[in-house]
Design brief:
The complex is a heterodimer.
Chain A (H helix, E strand, L loop, with lengths): L1 E9 L5 E10 L4 E5 L6 H9 L6 E6 L2 E2 L5 H11 E4 L11 H11 L7 H13 L15 H13 L5 E5 L7 H17 L3 E5 L11 E4 L4 E4 L1
Parallel strand pairs in A: 3-8, 3-9, 6-7, 7-8
Antiparallel strand pairs in A: 1-2, 1-4, 2-10, 4-5
Chain B lengths: L1 H13 L1 H37 L3 E4 L4 H10 L8 E2 L1 H9 L2 E12 L2 E6 L1 H6 L4 E4 L7 E4 L1 H7 L6 E3 L15 E8 L10 E4 H8 L2 E2 L13 E4 L4 E3 L18 E2 L7 E2 L1 E6 L2 H10 L8 E3 L1 H44 L1 H9 L4 H32 L1 H10 L1
Parallel strand pairs in B: 4-9, 6-8
Antiparallel strand pairs in B: 1-15, 1-16, 2-14, 3-4, 3-15, 5-8, 6-9, 7-8, 10-13, 11-12
Helix pairs in contact in B: 1-11, 2-9, 2-11, 2-12, 3-9
The chains are: A alpha/beta, B alpha+beta.
């Protein structure tokens, strides 16, 4: 599903430099990425998603060389192939739970909002135990509930790859286990691949594989 | 675009206070010139139509504008008074029909217009309820007076003292409402019409009191001779004219000396009008004969000169407001960086952001437009009254 070859990336006017000689994730694999803060874990997810573009090397994802695509094509690829669960949820306060889940359908031409999609969103929210909060503003939700909304939004288009950036980072221990369980169930149900950044070492045994970022060379360019 | 409008609507309704402020700003800046234009057009129509329908107006020398505003629109500013001699002089000329006007007093804020029955024919005013003036002390009220005061035929109306501090002044006159006029959408709707003699009663020039030759209290008589009886202030003066006391009302002095504020002159034809104007061109006559239309044209020219200046001021304020709104939007984009970042991360493009902002602006403009239209409809509906209240007075 993911193939990274000789990747090099640096932020403009920053000393940080990420170098990944080789990195692969197989289809339907659940991979955890660990490493110290600032080691480039989130950057890796953004490179895979096509939000960032590498300075060197290539990023292949679902058979497409993401790093070679233009802005619009990378965006379309991300919308159609990848579901991204952000650490800080990236929800909009002025939209209800359902509107937040459907938000990508309303802002991009690549996704079409139909009655079936709406039904699927309601059903997904039900599976995530937030089915009774669909009309509520997200400002009134707990952290765990917000993360479930974010997961619903990421899963709704049926992505082949799910990128989760510390999806359980803001949650209490009970919710962490539950959210991860839901995420795994959804990944299995959608026949998807999961690449998750986490700091919670107690969750690692539940993944198929763990990648330690200490193994990659990062530091000054 | 519908999705963008939906999200924009959600954003705007979430931030109600900010949205309401923006809508108010846009509405105000749009409504000011439109409403002003509407009111000025209506004031022009009202002023001109009244002036055009009044061929000539005779009054004392002085401000022609004061004379016309008082004689045609019953304005508070009373011009120099003339006497009934002016009517007699016009009648004697055989060139025009004179209609005397005495517009000086008020009854509960509405002007009392002393005139003759010719005035009603001249203005084509018809009675909607009751009957015409038939007896001293009666009044016929305009439709708006009846509506605002909630009075009708059979009720009474008190004249207001010229000043509340005038303790020695004449008593207010209690006038019986004989009729209510059909609405004419002119200043006549807001007037209380009385016979010219009743107007003089209001002033105290014509009055009635108990018979001094047979007073109820003999002590009110100060001096009695064969030719004259002098009474003190305790003598009962009538404040209402009834069938019982009407005969006691009498003039003091020659009726020709009694005051008027103006005389409408209705010439027999254009030639008679021209001859008449020629006769009064000489200032020594002690009168001025004005063509109201000319006076109002001059007034309107000044109003529209001021309006052009006002338009320029509104334009500058409008540009400043639009710039301020642009600044508000620009600053809001900075404040909404996190939200914009989210939209980018979940698949939105720059065009998405532009579409969302455009949708927000469109909704604000739409609401402002609707409010503006509603306000304009209201202004249009009440322009008649607004013009009379704001401009004509």
């Amino acid at each position: 599903m993911i193939e990274i070859d000789s990747l090099g990336f640096a932020y403009p006017e920053a000393e940080f430099f990420l170098r990944i000689p080789e990195f692969t994730v197989a289809s339907r694999e659940k991979v955890a990425v660990i490493g110290p803060s600032g080691s480039g874990k989130t950057t890796l997810l953004n490179l895979v998603a096509g939000i960032l573009v590498p300075r060197q090397g290539r990023v292949h994802c679902a058979g497409t060389e993401v790093s070679a695509l233009g802005d619009a094509a990378r965006r379309d690829f991300r919308i159609s192939t990848i579901g991204f669960v952000f650490q800080d949820f990236e929800l909009l306060d002025y939209l209800s739970v359902l509107d937040n889940i459907l938000h990508p359908y309303r802002i991009t031409g690549a996704l079409r909002l139909t009655a079936a999609v709406r039904e699927r969103a309601v059903s997904l929210a039900g599976q995530m135990d937030i089915g009774d909060k669909l009309t509520r503003g997200v400002g009134h939700l707990s952290q765990g509930e917000k993360q479930r909304v974010a997961i619903c939004r990421a899963l709704l288009p049926g992505p082949k790859l799910i990128l989760a950036d510390e999806a359980t980072g803001n949650l209490d221990p009970r919710n962490k286990g539950h959210i991860l369980e839901l995420l795994f169930e959804s990944v299995a149900a959608h026949d998807a691949t999961l690449l998750a950044v986490t700091h919670d070492h107690e969750l690692l045994p539940q993944f198929d594989r763990v990648v330690d970022f200490n193994d990659f060379r990062t530091g000054a360019a | 675009m519908i999705d963008s409008l939906y999200i924009a609507w959600k954003y705007l309704s979430f931030n109600r206070a900010r949205t309401a402020t923006l809508v108010a700003c846009v509405t105000l800046i749009a409504i000011l010139p439109l409403a002003l234009q509407l009111l000025l057009a209506e004031s022009e129509r009202q002023l001109l139509s009244r002036a055009e329908s009044t061929p000539l107006l005779l009054g004392a020398p002085g401000s022609a504008l004061d004379l016309v505003m008082n004689g045609l629109y019953f304005d508070d500013e009373v011009p120099q008074l003339i006497s009934m001699m002016a009517v007699e002089s016009l009648e004697a000329s055989g060139l025009a029909m004179p209609i005397p006007l005495y517009v000086r007093f008020k009854a509960r804020r509405f002007p009392i217009v002393g005139t003759t029955l010719d005035y009603f024919d001249f203005r084509a005013l018809t009675i909607a309820e009751g009957r015409q003036l038939a007896q001293l002390g009666e009044c016929v009220i305009g439709a708006e007076v009846a509506a605002r005061l909630g009075i009708t035929v059979g009720d009474s109306l008190l004249s207001s003292p010229e000043t509340v501090f005038d303790l020695a002044g004449v008593y207010p006159l209690k006038m019986q409402v004989a009729g209510v006029l059909q609405r004419s959408h002119t200043p006549d709707d807001l007037a209380v019409f009385v016979d010219i003699k009743t107007a003089w009663v209001v002033q105290g020039l014509v009055h009635g009191h108990e018979d001094v030759t047979r007073p109820q209290d003999a002590s009110v008589i100060i001096e009695r001779t064969d030719a004259n009886v002098v009474a003190n202030a305790r003598l009962v003066e009538y404040t209402e004219i009834t069938t019982e006391n009407i005969d006691s009302f009498h003039f003091h002095g020659a009726p020709g000396d009694y005051p008027l504020s103006a005389v409408i002159a209705v010439p027999d034809d254009a030639k008679a009008g021209t001859i008449l104007r020629g006769r009064y061109l000489d200032g020594d006559a002690g009168y001025q004969l004005v063509v109201p239309e000319t006076v109002i044209d001059g007034l309107l020219a000044n109003i529209f000169r001021i309006k052009h200046m006002l338009d320029a001021v509104i334009l500058v304020v409008g540009v400043a407001t639009v710039l301020a709104l642009i600044l508000v939007f620009a600053l809001s984009i900075r404040l909404r960086q996190r939200e914009i970042h989210t939209v980018f991360r979940i698949g939105g493009s720059r065009l998405t952001i532009v579409r969302l902002l455009a949708a927000e602006i469109a909704i604000i403009v739409l609401f402002s437009g609707l409010l503006c239209m509603a306000a304009i409809v209201l202004v249009h509906q009440y322009s008649n009254e607004l013009v009379r209240t704001l401009f004509i007075g």
